[in-house]
Design a protein that fits this description.
By secondary structure, this protein is mostly helical. It is built from 1 helix and no strands. The N and C termini lie far apart (65 Å).
Length: 58
């Protein structure tokens, strides 16, 4: 009985609480960080990949 209670009731609650807390804490930072990544990092990364692929192709 303890096993059932522990696994099926306690763990999901804890997991959702942890997820909720981390998303609330990290959301602003993560969005800001994500903006920086998408605007600055991805174009250069994409260019590097393109150059690398062209080098492989030749």
């Amino acid at each position: 009985m303890f096993h059932f209670y522990h696994c099926h009731i306690y763990l999901p609650i804890v997991r959702s609480n942890i997820v909720f807390l981390t998303t609330n804490i990290l959301n602003p930072y993560f969005l800001h960080f994500f903006n920086i990544i998408t605007e600055g990092f991805i174009p250069t990364y994409y260019n590097l990949i393109k150059i690398g692929l062209q080098a492989f192709a030749y």
